[in-house]
Automatic annotation (TrEMBL):
It comes from Actinomycetospora chlora. Its main location: membrane. It comes from the Bacteria. This is Aromatic acid exporter family protein. Keywords: Membrane, Transmembrane, Transmembrane helix.
Length: 361
């Protein structure tokens, strides 16, 4: 059964990857062909292999085509080809010439005060120029022009045919909150049944969420960059701003969930008797997270989730029924603050709400 679940999980992951990457792959493939066509038939270069190479390097097949990444790659490949051509024309090809070309390409790229991505691309492009064919003056100039054509078409494609800036961000947020809901309900089940193995599985699941948080942050930032280069997408900046404000609060909630899952595992392992109301609160909080997920991913008002979270805060017992269970209770209160902030509540107000609604037992 466990093996079957893993296979189904892998199949879902691969299907999701294909769905997310379909448009970027199509864009990259079509743009590479167009770059070759323009360089060969419009500019008149007989074998413009650097045009599609530059285009592919700029666009890549990444789901998140970041503006800074594309610009860095465009500059990097152009600098590398230019330096490689100019230097090898003078000193010729050879092993020590490649060392000189790579060093000078890296130095030239450093003058632009750029990141490691551009530096690496400049060096790789210089090596390609120095080794693929001995450059003559005309060929060298042609290859640099081909590079500029490919880079320009890649950047134009990224600007005019971008992915929807909200789709990936909303999908990533939905996946994160789904995981948080599963951790909460799974913890409630493990505490209720005293199943140590189930508690350990929930803990493992909670620990695996950080990569999703990082992916969501990248998706939101990439969405903003799309709205900068694509005028038709600028209307989504407001919603992306809302999601950007939500991500840190959800990240904190997940961090608290990891601590909660670890202490819940200790509750079961050490044989503590958790308060039944603690289990009930965990289930309620899971339902609240599901409501928050629906409202945020649909771009709706979060008043419903905010009201539900405040009601849940009023049911949190002062004590959980043991040392580790008390820690679980404290983590629930911390998560309530984070989730209320994600729902649009000021943090100080959220702290006040969760403090004032504690029951006296």
């Amino acid at each position: 059964m466990a093996a079957g679940d893993r296979l189904r999980g892998i199949a879902r992951s691969r299907a999701r990857r294909l769905r997310d990457s379909g448009l970027p792959i199509l864009q990259c493939a079509l743009a590479a062909g167009l770059a070759f066509l323009v360089a060969r038939d419009v500019v008149g270069h007989p074998l413009p292999f650097f045009a599609p190479i530059a285009c592919v390097l700029v666009l890549g097949v990444s789901v998140v085509n970041r503006l800074r990444r594309s610009v860095e790659l465009a500059v990097g490949v152009s600098v590398g080809v230019a330096v490689g051509d100019l230097i090898v024309v003078v000193i010729g090809p050879g092993w020590w010439q490649i060392s000189v070309v790579v060093g000078l390409a890296l130095l030239a790229a450093l003058l632009f005060d750029v990141g490691a991505l551009l530096l690496n691309q400049a060096a790789v492009s210089a090596v390609l120029v120095a080794t693929l064919q001995p450059p003559g003056t005309t060929a060298a100039f042609s290859r640099w022009i081909d590079t500029l054509i490919g880079a320009a078409i890649g950047l134009a494609t990224a600007a005019t045919l971008p992915s929807h800036p909200l789709t990936r961000a909303r999908r990533g947020l939905s996946a994160l909150l789904t995981e948080l809901e599963a951790v909460l309900t799974g913890t409630a089940d493990a505490l209720e049944t005293g199943d140590a193995e189930a508690a350990e599985q929930v803990l493992t699941r909670a620990r695996d969420t950080q990569g999703r948080v990082d992916a969501l942050t990248d998706a939101v930032d990439a969405g903003f960059e799309i709205t900068v280069i694509a005028p038709l997408r600028r209307r989504h900046r407001g919603e992306l701003g809302r999601l950007r404000a939500v991500v840190p609060a959800v990240d904190l909630a997940l961090r608290n969930a990891r601590v909660l899952a670890r202490r819940a595992h200790a509750v079961v392992r050490d044989g503590e008797r958790p308060d039944p109301e603690l289990v009930a609160v965990l289930r309620r909080l899971g339902s609240d997270v599901a409501e928050l997920r629906t409202e945020l991913t649909r771009g709706e008002s979060t008043d419903g989730a905010r009201s539900a979270l405040i009601d849940t805060a009023g049911t949190v017992p002062l004590h959980g029924g043991g040392y580790s269970a008390d820690v679980v209770t404290a983590q629930i209160r911390s998560m309530l603050v984070d989730l209320l902030v994600a729902a649009g509540t000021d943090r100080d107000e959220a702290v006040a709400v969760t403090s004032s609604t504690r029951r006296d037992g």
